[in-house]
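To illustrate this point, what follows is a protein record of this kind.

___
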Amino acid sequence: MWIESSDGIQVAVHEFGGTGRTLLWSHATGFHAHCYEPIARRLGDNFTSFGLDHRGHGTTALTNNWQVDWSKYGDDAHAAAEAIAPDGGLVAFGHSMGGASLVMAAHAKPGLFEALVVFEPIIFPAPDVGPKGEPTPMIAAARNRRATFDSYEAAIERYSSKPPMQFFDADILRAYVEHGFAPTGDAGSNQVGLRCTPEHEARTFETGGTHGFWDVLPEVETRVVVVSGKVEEERSPAGIAASVAERLPNGSYIELTTGNHLTPFITPDVIADLLRDTLC
């Protein structure tokens, strides 16, 4: 389905099926909703799942000349949540950028969500705004990311041989490629290109510390379970996660000591079990 968000953008919301209470999936930067569908299938007896493609990701396009503004990712999550649960009481899982956008949406409309589980949400205190000096390796890697492959299968073969995606669950890697690329339209060619452009991904990473939402975390009334992988660096999404939980009036924190920022894609069974334990 297509839902109108801010700036006239129509965001894509995909139904993944299942039975039980409604669960919304909100993805990380550079990814898209279908990356979480294999986890949603594991939870089919517990939840009816819907996945959101944020603007510039998956099948949700950008308007001309739109500049990255993280508050608008919050608008996308808000619009999707209201569309699938107009009476509120929704539960949701957000990963990285997707976690931050869900918390923004919960702040915008108390009662919209009953509970959130957010994995390493990108919410940092004010001193950590913006890149300092040279671009981080993540930003540089995004900007230099290969944008086209000769076919879907060529992309899967390439990613499955290189870190970090070589460690992804096979179904999740295939979903990333099959829904994250589209035919380029070249006549007589099977060539496919990224839907989320390298520049859009890089700009999203670059501006992730600038949205200032840290300051309003104490105003978020919703129950929020903040999850991280193993904490190895203080100034990282994992390192700040416990502090995010502490600032939330109804926050709690879980550290997965064998995980990292990409755990949802590497060990989907772990995330499925965690969601059953925290939301059922």
